[in-house]
């Protein structure tokens, strides 16, 4: 059995890595988070070991692969960390956002790697970085077993009528054009923590979960299974993100630019991205409206001008999905759950969203509960006799490590 599990989570704006001891309690040895990737600001590096926390800026980290190499350097340098370069028995668990038709996590070999390469174009902000990291990992940790943990697997349970787009079915089948949905590792982690908090089995827990980070999505979970989510064929659809437009009229992009279908200058021999994808994935979202990808400047009561508009748009789209999913769940919702970097940290956003959902039995949150600091995985911010409102710290890395411990 592997002794160590290194969980590697390449998000659109961050790289979060945790080294676990592969034992029953999956003891956390060290966590390193590099955030602020894909932005004009220098990246920041945060190292957590037990109760110790160290934070610094690093101007030399430009992309996810740089970030991963820095993580390996830091682990190698740390004398209290078992020498992972020499460990015979280590599993590297990689978060892969788009897993196509995979119904479970898989070991990465030549065949699975090539399948994932073909999917790159469907998740251009994510899969390409994850594959670059897998390449580095195979080089730097040649003895490690590499496992792909997929964001899309959790949503395989969505009904046909939800997964299917109203387009030519033969063409859709041939090209794999359907709704996949993402952030599934996070939803699984949230379902686990929230059902434990509610003291209900997962199979009897129904939730509307808001994963709000640089990429944001919503999921309707009915009796422990995803029945609907806001992202689709790619992570572009649904809510806006820091650099993503979210839902727009699909023809908008042809009015935005006359060369939407041409390859963008960012394309490489291996990865083809059109100008349309570049614009909607990388040059939109609140960063395009406000000039900052940092939502802590936007999600505050004092926000004005473009920041205020970006905030109002985000709240508007979120409450639209809550209403939609409330109906899809026939009103049987155990809790509305806020998660992700923004969901966890912006009390003002939570307050505004809940206020707008008063007709669904939510309602304005005063400052007391909502402003509390999180301790543990779940914080109950329900104030009155309303539906339950929770904040949950998602732990994608622990979820990936759990999958490896159980299956590989
Ligand atoms: N105090 C805060 N208030 C609001 N948003 C915040 C705060 N701190 C961080 N954020 C936002 O959280 C997002 C990152 O969330 P996270 O879920 O970690 O990202 P990723 O999508 O890279 O996984 C960024 O958009 C960042 O601006
Ligand atoms: C799927 C997705 O958008 O992931 P992230 O929020 O980590 O960028
Ligand atoms: Mg993330």
Gyration radius, in Å: 21 Å
Relevant CATH superfamily of the largest domain:
ATPase, nucleotide binding domain
Terminus-to-terminus distance? 9 Å
Mean pLDDT metric: 93
What is the total number of structural domains? Answer: 3
Count every beta strand, where a strand is a DSSP E run of 2 or more residues: 14
Assigned CATH class of the largest domain: Alpha Beta
Major sheet description: 8 strands, mixed
Fraction of helical residues: 25-40%
Describe this structure in words.
With 408 residues, the protein is an alpha/beta fold. The chain has three domains: 147 residues, 2-Layer Sandwich (Nucleotidyltransferase, domain 5); 156 residues, ATPase, nucleotide binding domain (Nucleotidyltransferase, domain 5), CATH 3.30.420; 35 residues, no CATH class. The protein has 14 helices and 14 strands. The strands form two sheets. The protein has an eight-stranded mixed sheet, sandwiched between helices. The chain has a six-stranded mixed sheet with strand order 11-10-9-12-14-13, with helices on both faces. A hairpin with an 8-residue loop joins β13 and β14. α1 packs parallel to α3. The termini are close together. The site of magnesium ion has 2 residues, from loops.
């Amino acid at each position: 059995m592997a002794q160590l599990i290194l969980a590697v989570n390449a998000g659109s704006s961050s790289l979060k890595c945790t080294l676990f001891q592969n034992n029953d309690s999956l003891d956390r040895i060290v966590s390193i988070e590099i955030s602020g990737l894909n932005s004009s600001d220098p990246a920041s590096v945060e190292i957590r070991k037990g109760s110790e926390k160290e934070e610094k800026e690093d101007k030399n980290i430009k992309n996810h692969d740089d970030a991963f190499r820095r993580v390996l350097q830091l682990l190698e340098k740390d004398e209290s960390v078992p020498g992972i370069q020499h460990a015979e028995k280590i599993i590297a668990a990689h978060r892969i956002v788009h897993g196509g038709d995979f119904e479970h996590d898989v070991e990465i070999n030549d065949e699975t790697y090539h399948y994932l390469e073909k999917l790159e174009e469907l998740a251009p902000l994510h899969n390409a970085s994850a594959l670059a990291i897998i390449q580095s990992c195979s080089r730097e940790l040649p003895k490690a077993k590499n496992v792909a943990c997929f964001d899309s697997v959790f949503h395989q349970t969505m009904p046909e009528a939800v997964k299917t787009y109203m387009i030519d079915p033969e063409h859709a089948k041939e090209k794999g054009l359907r709704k996949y949905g993402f952030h599934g590792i996070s939803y699984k982690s949230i379902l686990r923590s929230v059902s434990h908090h509610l003291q209900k089995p997962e199979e009897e827990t129904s939730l509307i979960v808001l994963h709000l980070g640089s990429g944001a999505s919503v999921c309707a979970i009915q009796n422990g299974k995803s029945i609907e989510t806001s992202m689709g064929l790619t992570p572009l659809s649904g809510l806006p993100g820091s650099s993503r437009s979210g839902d727009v009229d699909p023809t908008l992009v042809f009015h935005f630019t006359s060369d939407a279908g041409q390859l963008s200058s960012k394309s490489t021999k291996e990865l083809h991205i059109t100008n349309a994808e570049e614009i909607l994935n990388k040059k939109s979202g609140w960063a395009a409206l406000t000039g900052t990808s940092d939502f802590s400047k936007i999600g505050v009561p004092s926000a004005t001008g473009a920041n205020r508009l970006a905030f109002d748009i985000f709240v508007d789209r979120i409450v639209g999905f809550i209403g939609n999913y409330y109906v899809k769940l026939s009103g049987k919702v155990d809790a509305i759950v806020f998660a992700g970097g923004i969901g966890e940290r912006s009390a003002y956003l939570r307050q505004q969203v809940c206020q707008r959902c008063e007709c669904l039995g939510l309602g304005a949150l005063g400052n007391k509960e909502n402003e509390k600091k999180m301790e543990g995985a779940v914080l109950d911010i329900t104030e009155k006799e309303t539906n339950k409102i929770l904040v949950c710290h998602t732990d994608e890395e622990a979820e990936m490590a759990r999958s490896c411990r159980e299956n590989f």
